[in-house]
């Protein structure tokens, strides 16, 4: 059993059934199919606004494409120093934007500290010909420390960024997990607080490979550019219906929220077990489906011996990721392995 | 019923079954899964050589990624003026290569005329600092006129290109169809005749979305670069097993060849019907699963009225594409509609 | 003595004197100096309109920067197959535009044939998501065959291009020579006939290294973008005054036209000598300061023996370029060498 | 009189005389001239090694071109957070490298702290497919705080960087000033301590516009690529002799060192005056030709009233730059203005 990553988990069976159902007859290609249209309607309802949406197959593609219509090649993007777009995408944002700079900001628990943003806004002038003008603030929700920004925390960052003319990008690879934690509506956690574009991930939460790039009304006029870039980047899947079908099933009857709720609950179960062990500490609060723990080497070794998979993290902690399919038995196995 | 494009066709059911079978337990992500390894072994056997392979979800991504490791940003790529990479990919090769030039060559029926290649090789010097050096010859098999290069025709182009130091890229979005037409082995039509990299498409021939970039031994040492670019371009699917699973089922027991053989046969059936009609001419030989026909406007109108889908082509012809799922009934409906 | 290229010629002494005069005291850098401002005023007067101008040090930089604000990364630029931007700039336009396609058109004597333009406009749709939309028509004046477009010839190309929404770029590395030949005003040969941006070269006509990118009113609103790109490309010279000073002296009292007139006159002198020789033919009309001649090998050898420099051209002809400093003695030496 | 920047200073007269001398007869273009060859020989002697050199007209071009052959598009470049390449070149390094990431390091007085480098080397893995591999360490000498790295300080950074496989780039816009301060030979401060490529600036130290990109033996094999990129970027000046001529005169008889020595001496004179004033503090040590001072607003105002030019710096200090032509009278005028 594996706590390595939610990308190693299987897909929820209902999504595969949806793919099978979508496999009838001919259908327009490249996103002009009926299922894609239905998903757009679903999303408009869920987000309570008129929006545009495109589907791709990876979070890296999703983030990089969204950023490429928010930042110019000679612009700058502010993000947390540990952001996935900065550390784990092999320079995809730089490739898709054709050269924009990612400026790393700082803050505890993966959250950008408003003071770090303030300093960066002061240091990077917007109208100085010799400097790359800041154009985007990118926020990860959940962030790379597994923490969720609250609405107030978002406000504290988005307000000054907007005042400085920046667009707001949200890397929502684990957006559903953050939503469940916050107990807010999708609208409240995105466009109502100033997010311009959300990269809403499903792959880590039950899909085979489906990510949605959502443009809220503030940037809807850039949709044609986004489509052109999607095509140019080879991300306009010919048989798009099979990606859209995943999304439709995933959104239906709040399955996406149920799956995230399950993953988050299992993370808390795991947390309780770790806490009860006594020698295990936490690098960050557990606010989603990820735990970053400090444990004595012998304990880590014991877990590995028991076949329990997790990653050693660059900061010296151990990362455990739960998912929609983590079972009570999985948790219990950790519990058993912890006992000497 | 639709002859619009093989990308509007559904997927073969056995591929969806394979996806469902692949959906068990955790699996390493990003292509490190067991199915991906098995497909590589299958391909090595089918192509009778040691090769490297990566999977992506569109032909555009496949071509552009392959070209990006064959051409430098300041290099030139020779291709037919009507090549998909030149006309129909929104500049994806330019984007992925970061600026390489596509130099259009000419020739009838979508085939590059050796004289056009010869002229281009003369005009584009390889060691002149002020000019973009030619580095790649890209051949489409089937080509954009639905024609298949024979081995001799490939020889006549590849030999002088190789002599000039060019690498050979093959856009094989419909490679299976060309293979069936030529009656040669996969090896004979690729690396044995000098092809360095094959973009082998499955999407148009029964897959949901699966394309393989194959590096033959001559360029295998560029595999690490290809992987880095795949990641950077957002084309390294987190749950790669679901793409690999399609490929495994598609290759198994020669399904891929059976599907192509079927599509080609239906194209010939359709050709026979058009020929028997008397007023319909052909813009190009029918050598795969595509027909480009000249028909009087009233006939075209009659077909459309009968709900038969096809595209008007830029050259004034009408394109009909058959696929793995074109039925005798589909052909018969055309036949019926043709009768006044 | 050399007819190799006008780039091998020295600079006119008055430009060096101007540089020396500019070398007093401190001056604002990066183009904010007083001389730059004066040259802009000169150019507004010469072109009879309000324009923007930037200086760079090479024609390649000039063309590529201008094109980068006229074409998008996923757009297409129409130019003659032999255009300098296509053949002799190592992909600079592709680099600066970050991937735009150059689509080669055809026509005799380096002039784009209106039929070739018409065909390209038909083949490259403007609103098809899968194709690179044509956005620029680039014309060389003088062109690569040493020929000058007349106003009517410009009209025949620019009118349909404009109707299709294209912007017009003019590569004027030898603009002065074309102007002299046409006997028209600078305005008549540029913005009045629809040119949006002119790359006006001085380097080949007496400068040390000075090229002006001129934006006419139709694209003046892109000036800030051009400045940003100039900086980003390292072409915003810190001590810009020394480039501007060259331009100021070059424009003063019509020196630029006098120099071009001289070069053109010497080309005609050389032409007369070649004609009188009897065995020498011309590949193209002589309409500026370049001659492309067909001569028997022994004659070419005799010229070379006499120390007369010229280039063998890809089309088999021999190119002779006169310049502002070609003397009667230079011409006479050719005459002498031609005699057996 | 101006302490705004050394780029606002005039050129040394001997360089203009050299240009005038170079202006005779025809000369091969694009760097194939005799003067360029002579300067290369001069530099080989000065740096006591076999090297390659190219000339450009701005420091931005020089840095960006050098970096483009040291870093891949998907690589990372470590530099100080305040480095010119990061803050003041409008993303030129990102443009020329086609997407490399600049990773800001930290340290007092513009010097990278070895601990900051150590942390970055730990955080940015070299062989992780998902991360941009670090490939270059860029050091500014003088740095952006006007400070010079000593040989020991260079050692402390270059040794671990080299051990990690990084190439070393030195931004030497004010290299001569750093050399004079250190009292070391050019070789000792560059390749002998591990520098692979030096961007050696003359523009700020007496030239009209001349920067040399020097490749030391460790990267000499990349020279052809550098030339191709120089051409592609429009930085291969057609009449290169006029840039080379500046360099030749500048290097001759150690003029370049004399000019830097003068500028540094005037900076110390200015420092002494500021110190004697009593209320003026220094943000950084004065180790070249730049002073960053903290002064009460009334004093700053008094200086401005006296027509003394300087820039307010982002950190709140006031920057004064001396140059080769700063006179005793200039210094005295500051002295006079300081007195109430």
How would you characterize the overall build of this protein?
The structure is a homotetramer of 340-residue chains. Chain A is α/β, with parallel strands linked by helices and 340 residues long. Chain A is built from 13 helices and eleven strands. The first copy, chain A, has a seven-stranded mixed β-sheet with strand order 1-7-6-5-4-2-3, sandwiched between helices. Chain A has a four-stranded antiparallel β-sheet with strand order 8-9-11-10, with helices on one face. In chain A, strand 4 (134-140), helix 7 and strand 5 form a beta-alpha-beta unit. In chain A, helix 3 crosses helix 9 (223-232). The two termini of chain A are 20 Å apart. In chain A, 61% of the residues are buried. The interface between A and B is large, with 53 and 53 residues.
Attribute tags:
homotetramer; seven-stranded mixed β-sheet; 11 strands; 2 domains; Aspartate Aminotransferase, domain 2; 340 residues; four-stranded antiparallel β-sheet; alpha/beta; Aspartate Aminotransferase, domain 1
Supply the CATH architecture of the largest domain in chain A. 3-Layer(aba) Sandwich
CATH class of the largest domain in chain A: Alpha Beta
Residue share in helix of chain A: 40-55%
Radius of gyration of chain A equals: 20 Å
Q: How would you sum up the major sheet of chain A?
A: 7 strands, mixed
Oligomer state equals homotetramer
CATH topology call of the largest domain in chain A: Aspartate Aminotransferase, domain 2
In terms of structural class, how would the helical and strand content of chain A be classed? alpha/beta
Q: Whole-number average pLDDT of chain A?
A: 97
Please identify which CATH superfamily of the largest domain in chain A we are dealing with: Type I PLP-dependent aspartate aminotransferase-like (Major domain)
What form of chain A results from the Cα inertia axes?
A: globular
Biggest sheet of chain A: strands side by side, in what order? 1-7-6-5-4-2-3
- Number of helical segments with 4 or more residues of chain A: 13
How widely separated are the two ends of chain A? 20 Å
Percent of sequence in beta strands of chain A: 15-25%
Give the largest chain-chain interface (CB within 8 Å).
A-B, 53 and 53 residues
- Number of DSSP-assigned strands of chain A: 11
Q: How many domain regions of chain A?
A: 2
- The ordered H/E elements of chain A are HHEHEHHEHEHEHEEHHHEEHEEH
Note poorly predicted spans of chain A.
Answer: none
């Amino acid at each position: 059993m594996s706590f390595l990553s939610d990308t190693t988990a299987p897909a929820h069976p209902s999504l595969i059934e949806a793919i099978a159902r979508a496999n009838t007859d001919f259908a327009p290609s490249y996103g002009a199919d009926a299922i894609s249209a239905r998903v757009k309607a679903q999303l408009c309802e869920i987000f309570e606004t008129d929006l545009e949406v495109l589907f791709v197959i990876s979070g890296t593609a999703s983030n990089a494409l969204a950023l490429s219509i928010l930042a110019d090649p000679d612009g700058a993007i502010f993000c947390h120093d540990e952001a996935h777009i900065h550390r784990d995408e092999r320079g995809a944002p730089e490739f898709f934007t054709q050269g924009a700079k990612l400026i790393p900001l700082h803050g505890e628990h993966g959250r950008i500290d408003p003071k770090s943003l303030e300093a960066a806004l002061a240091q990077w002038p917007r109208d100085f010909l010799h400097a790359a003008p800041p154009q985007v603030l990118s926020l990860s929700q959940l962030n790379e420390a597994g923490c969720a920004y609250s609405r107030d925390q978002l406000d504290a960052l988005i307000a000054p960024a907007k005042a400085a003319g920046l667009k707001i990008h949200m890397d929502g690879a684990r957006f559903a997990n953050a939503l469940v934690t916050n107990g807010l509506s999708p609208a409240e956690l995105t466009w109502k607080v100033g997010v311009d574009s959300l990269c809403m991930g499903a792959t880590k939460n039950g899909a085979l490979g489906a990510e949605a790039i959502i443009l809220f009304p503030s940037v809807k006029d850039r949709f044609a550019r986004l489509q052109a870039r999607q095509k140019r980047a080879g991300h306009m899947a010919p048989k798009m219906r099979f990606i859209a079908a995943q999304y439709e099933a995933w959104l239906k009857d709040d399955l996406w929220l149920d799956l995230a709720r399950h993953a988050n609950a299992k993370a808390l179960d795991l947390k309780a077990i770790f806490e009860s062990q006594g020698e295990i500490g936490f690098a960050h609060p557990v606010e989603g489906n990820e735990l970053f723990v400090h444990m004595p080497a012998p304990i880590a070794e014991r877990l590995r011996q028991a076949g329990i998979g997790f990653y050693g993290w660059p900061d010296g902690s151990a990362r455990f990721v739960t998912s929609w399919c983590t079972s009570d038995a999985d948790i219990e196995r950790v519990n058993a392995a912890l006992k000497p």
